[in-house]
Each structure stands twice: as structure tokens, then as C-alpha cells.
Amino acid sequence: MPLGIMRVESVGAAARALAADAGARFVGGGTLVVRDANAGNVSIKTLILSDGLGLDRIAVDGTRVTIGAATSMAGIAAHPTLGFLKPVAESIGGPAIRNMATVGGNLFAPYPYGDFAVALLALGATVTVEDADRSEAIDLEALLGKDRRNKPAIVTGVSFELPPAGAFRFAKVVRRKPHGASVLSIAAVLPLAERKVAGARVAYGAMAATPMRARAVEKALEGQSLDERTIAAAVKVAAEGCAPLSDPQASAWYRLQVLPVHLRRLLSGGERH
Ligand SMILES: Cc1cc2nc3c(=O)[nH]c(=O)nc-3n(C[C@H](O)[C@H](O)[C@H](O)COP(=O)(O)OP(=O)(O)OC[C@H]3O[C@@H](n4cnc5c(N)ncnc54)[C@H](O)[C@@H]3O)c2cc1C
């Protein structure tokens, strides 16, 4: 059966088309969904293209950043204000993948993918979601916690506050260098007020079925100076709430073993990427 390609004039029209046809899929860059169709997934009947919907823009308004869902990883890496996210974007696939892979698609990428979503989770990002009737802004964590398969809703963009200079940290552990899928990834925003951590947000990738917050770690860091004692306390609770899966990259057991090592390095400033 031939695969239909649909171009639409608005996000609302795309959402209506998705709602009307269980075989329709929205395409960001297509690095996953087009591969899936080409690999013979016959449940995919129609691809609805995001091109031309104006979802590939990045806006910086003071300290607020809004990134259109169809912005590519290459677009993130090249943006002058988003230098702190360059290592995250550049950790995703090789150059050909990064030219296509979008921010929106990364929120729906299956385990162990979703490295950009991990960074957005640490940044406390809000996601704008549109369906056929309405648009709403929801917390990224709430979106990641939902059953996101084949839902007729479209993410149009993500938005967050720029972190203070030097407060954002990211590490991705891979077996196949330089661009393997994650054994795990960690992103953290660690703002300091009078040398104490104030407003810590730490997120993990590949340590549960979807990117997750490391709340026990955040709690151990909050209000403390980032010294050896605090780092030891945070590392002690590193695995709380984690439920990693086993896959060709690593077993769940291995992921749990190496997480504390990489968290310690990240918090000590010795591992950024
Ligand atoms: C060789 C290779 C290496 C890769 N390496 C990595 C990696 O290191 N890290 C990583 O995180 N990922 C990796 N990926 C996975 C993937 O490329 C990225 O996660 C990418 O960001 C997915 O975005 P996309 O636009 O290509 O998604 P698509 O393939 O277009 O879509 C993926 C899913 O998301 C849905 N979707 C897309 N955009 C939206 C939207 N705006 N609103 C609602 N639903 C949407 C689609 O319907 C589909 O279900 C890799 C993939 C390949 C093939």
C-alpha cells in the first residue's frame, strides 16, 4: 500500500488530519518515523509534513527562550545565544541526523533516545501543545509522563528561562564514540546564590523509560555549597527512583553501577560532555 504524504497549511489542520486518521503521523525531521515507515511498519499510512508551518524558529526575549518544535539540532548548535546547549545538540547522531532531527521529535523519541528532552527537563521547560480545538502550555515533565503514542496533538514549541552563566551542565555516556545512543545522560541546572545551590534541577536520560527528574539528588544539593560533602550526599541517592531498561547499549544493572560515577564527575565539574 502506498504511503501518503500530506502538506497542511496550519497546525490545526495537521491536528485534525491526525485525529481523523489512525494511520497518520506528524513528521518533524523524520529520522525516526520515516525510518519506521521504510522499515515496513504498515500501521503508518500517511506522513503529515511539518515544513512550512513556521515551527523552525528560535526567539529570545530577554531571558526567555522559545524554540519551535521543528528546529533541528544543527539549528540549536549554530544559535549564538544557545551555546550552552551546543554540546547537547552535537551529542545527537552524526551531522546528517542533526540536520534533520528536531527538538519536537526528540520529546517522542523512544528509549534510550531523548537527550535533548533531558536537557529541557533540567531547564524546567514548558511545552506548547495544540490539538484540533485548542492550544495549551504544559510542563514538559507532565508531557513525558503521558502516554504519547499516536496522539493527535502536536507540540509547536518549547520555552524556558536562560540559566545563569555556567549553571548548566551536561554529560552523555556512550559506548560507541563519538555518536552512540546513550548508556545514560545527565543534565543539571545548578544556580548559586551566595555560594549555595538555589533551585537545583537535575534530569537523567536512559535511567527510566522516559527522561526523568532526579529529585533526591536535587534535594541533597539544595541550599548547600557544592563541596565534597554535598556531592557525596547527592551521589549516595543518585539511583533513587531510577528504573533503567536493558538494551544493546547496556544492561539496567550496568547503568545503575555507572550512574553515581558520572554524577560525581558532573557535580565536581570534571565532566561536561
Ligand atoms: C542513526 C541515529 C542516531 C540517533 N542518535 C540519537 C541520539 O544520540 N540521541 C537522541 O536523543 N536521539 C537520537 N536519534 C533519534 C532521533 O534522531 C532524535 O531523537 C530526533 O530528535 C527525533 O526527531 P525527528 O524530528 O527526526 O523525529 P520524527 O522521526 O520526525 O518523529 C518521531 C516521533 O515524534 C513525533 N513528532 C515529531 N515531531 C512532533 C511534534 N512537533 N509534535 C508531536 N509529535 C511529533 C512523530 O510523529 C513520531 O512519532 C538517532 C536516530 C538515528 C536514526
Structure, explained:
The protein has about 270 residues and is an alpha+beta fold. It has eleven helices and 14 strands. The strands form four sheets. The chain has a five-stranded antiparallel beta sheet with strand order 4-5-8-6-7. Strands 9-10-13-14 form a four-stranded antiparallel beta sheet, with helices on both faces. It has a three-stranded parallel beta sheet with strand order 1-3-2, with helices on one face. Helix 9 runs antiparallel to helix 10 and helix 10 packs antiparallel against helix 11. Bound molecules: flavin-adenine dinucleotide (FAD).
The radius of gyration is: 19 Å
Separate helix tally: 11
Which of globular, elongated, flat, extended, rod-shaped describes the shape? globular
The helix/strand class is alpha+beta
Bound ligands: flavin-adenine dinucleotide
| Overall average residue pLDDT | 94
Q: Report the biggest beta sheet as strand number plus sense, adding barrel if it closes.
A: 5 strands, antiparallel
The oligomeric state is single chain
Number of strands: 14
Helix content: 25-40%
Q: H/E order of the elements?
A: EHEHEEEHHHHHEEHEEEEEEEHHH
Regions with little confidence, pLDDT below 50 for 5+ residues: none
Distance between the termini: 44 Å
Q: Reading side by side through the largest sheet, how are the strands ordered?
A: 4-5-8-6-7
- Our estimate of the beta-strand percent is 15-25%
